[in-house]
Amino acid sequence: MLYDITIDGKKYRLDLNRADGRWSCRLDGREFEIDPILTRPDVLSLRIGDLSYEVKSERVANELHLWVGSTCFAVEVRDPRSLRGRTRAGDDHGPRKITAPMPGKVVRLLVREGDEVEPGQGVVVVEAMKMQNEIKSPKKGSIQKILVSEGAAVNAGDVLAIVE
Amino acid sequence: MFKKILIANRGEIAVRVLRACHEMGIAAVAVYSEVDRGALHVRKADEAYPIGSAAATESYLNIPRILDVARRSGTDAIHPGYGFLSENAKFAQACADAGVKFIGPTAAAMEALGSKTRARQAMEKAGVPFVPGTSRGVDSIEEAEQVAARIGYPVMLKAAAGGGGKGMRLVEVPELLKSALEAARSEAERSFGDSEVYIEKAIVNPRHIEMQVFADEHGNTVYLGERECSLQRRHQKVLEEAPSPIVDPDMRRRMGETAVRVAQAANYTNAGTVEFLVDQAKNFYFLEMNTRLQVEHPVTELITGLDLVHLQIRIAAGEKLPFKQDDVRVRGHAIECRIYAEDPDNNYFPSPGKITLLQEPSGPGVRIDTGMYEGWTVPIDYDPLLAKLIGYGSDRDQAIARVTRALNECFVGGIKTNISLFRRILRDADFRAAKLDTGFLDRMVKRPEDRPADSKAAEVAAIAAGLFAALGSTEQGSGNGAGSGSRATEKEDSNWKNAGRREALR
Lengths: 164, 506
Prior knowledge:
The complex is a heterodimer of chains A (164) and B (506).
Chain A: E1 2-7, E2 10-19, E3 22-27, E4 30-32, E5 34-40, E6 43-48, E7 51-60, E8 63-68, E9 71-78, E10 96-99, E11 104-109, E12 116-117, E13 122-128, E14 131-136, E15 141-146, E16 153-154, E17 159-163
Chain B: E1 4-7, H1 11-23, E2 27-33, H2 40-44, E3 47-52, H3 63-73, E4 77-79, H4 89-97, E5 101-102, H5 107-114, H6 116-125, H7 141-151, E6 155-159, E7 169-171, H8 177-192, E8 197-201, E9 207-215, E10 221-233, E11 236-242, H9 249-265, E12 270-278, E13 284-290, H10 297-304, H11 308-316, E14 333-340, E15 342-343, E16 349-350, E17 353-354, E18 357-359, E19 366-370, E20 377-378, E21 385-393, H12 396-409, E22 411-413, H13 419-427, H14 429-432, H15 440-446, H16 455-471, H17 485-505
Parallel strand pairs in B: 1-2, 1-4, 2-3, 4-5
Antiparallel strand pairs in B: 6-7, 6-8, 9-10, 9-12, 10-11, 11-14, 12-13, 14-21, 15-16, 17-20, 18-22, 19-21
């Protein structure tokens, strides 16, 4: 099984195979001796050689986070054989979704469809726990679509607007 | 003793009080707003009553509805926790009028301490130290110079009508007093239409240290040692410890006796906390008295071996304090971390949502007072305090080591928390040297954090990412959200699949 993995902007090619209960693992061509046990969903006990790690997995606002000890990594995993998800995150070309980082209520729209925005410019104000948070545009472009209205309740990961 | 206690609160403190009730063989009645049906305090209670919608004014602050539940449930006492109605004299009075014991001070004591001017008069009579200065405006530069010379530099000029830093000037040497006074006056005139300016001794980089007191209804008042609460952000305490690293037995006795005088001057009963500002020469000045159980009460419990909620209930039931001042001993050191659902990468903005994975710490010297559980959705409507992690050791270094170890065991998945902030505090050289003041945290978070990228851990994460994908553990996305029914089913499916895959892995 081949995986293209991106961690904090750095790309890795991982080749995992399992035969007769034993795993073989090559990361960017280097061989690792691994012994994994999924102790429960989202918690992996992983021996690499004789070193022991507990890795925890969570999704926060549609981002996959893996925790190795107390260090958190934002991770993207792609199967290179599949065409799905080939668009690269961090890519400035093409439309980008602006999503709610937390559940809350839309209290204000700061732009209208068709407006030009700069990277970091506020697009929507979401209120949660009595605090207001400006959700910003990830890139320069124009607001192609706004999918929420003032007063709307949103969940973490909901698409608020699309910037092209 | 009471048979049934209503807990007029939610979250970790409701669970904390509920546990004390059960330990004492008392039935616990929970109340909840409509978004808290699934909250831990409802799950653990003996009886639970809905009291209204999410807005606190419609539920946890609604006195008639809470008293109605007290009547219907046959409650004989109400514990208010902290926040909400805990310092509301009207509520304490309404309880008394309804024939239900309010577990806390009387309405009269709350009112006496609530009014700043009345409190100050009573306290000055009792010999309680305030920040030295004039309580009214100075008329001339000559008068200002005399006052400043008497109280000593540095001094702070403050607008009598002021607030928000307007009309305030710090003066460090006498030569600058005249120009600063003129500037403060004109700024006060412009901002508030009132040029009256008074002088106080400037407390530079103060510590915030508070003293726990307890008074029974038979005239006995004791102090139970101090808590160091200097680590704050936006006037919100973040980490507390007891004892304070700078307080020695003599200072503890002096602060404690002062706190007892404050309580007695107000005819105070039950648990209370007297807050002090402490300057660099260890002079302490009365700030205010909190007429409730504090969030950070567990650190006092750990170093005194007392259970403050048990004591509150026993005193409210009319019992005498079961010990004398001389019996109170401070032993070891305790540190509390307030774990909030907030995002450290986004200016500590609240981050509610569903907890998809929860690993709570345990082991020697670790206590966790919690209101959360795995699968619970943290509502957006209330204070984002999830739990308090408290570590105890025989000395401060061991307590730091314990809390650090416990934080590494602690994992709250699916939402963002401030756990990483505590790791940073606990390894900070100044924190370890106990060089604390109320500006510490703001200075610390402004400094860039230099943590070298860990390429080895990143490789481990890369391998684990592939394994999670291969084992199907994350594909279903234990995604965050409102936890709708369909999502729950999906998740159940994936758990079955995971169980199957786990079997296959053996």
